[in-house]
Write a structure and sequence with these properties.
single chain, mainly beta, eight-stranded antiparallel β-sheet, about 0% helix
Length: about 120
Amino acid sequence: METLVGTLSKAGSIHKVVGGYVGLPPMNEPGTEAAIGDSLHNPEGSVMCAGFFELTASEPLVYTYTYDEMKVVIAGEFILTDEATGEVTHAKERDVLFFPKGTTVRFETPEYGLGFFAGDRSFAP
């Protein structure tokens, strides 16, 4: 199981994470300055995971989704290319994105991008 980022507290059934975007683990992709970390994964047996993805201007990150995911751009900008079609979209702060399972995306940024994601993936054995 992966390490969670941030500090978790609960108020009854409500889960709250503070600082989930601080100290994100690097993705260790050569030439790419990308980091990602879960703030929550499968809380209370849910199939959902959520956390933050950060990219700094560097070589593109190419990623194939093995699960459905939604992402909201929190800061900066992402330039996204659907590798199957070559179509490009620019996502800026407050834009919402959906990546269906099986999609391969090239992530780039002119300077910096921070996104919050929620994905349908499980760490269950």
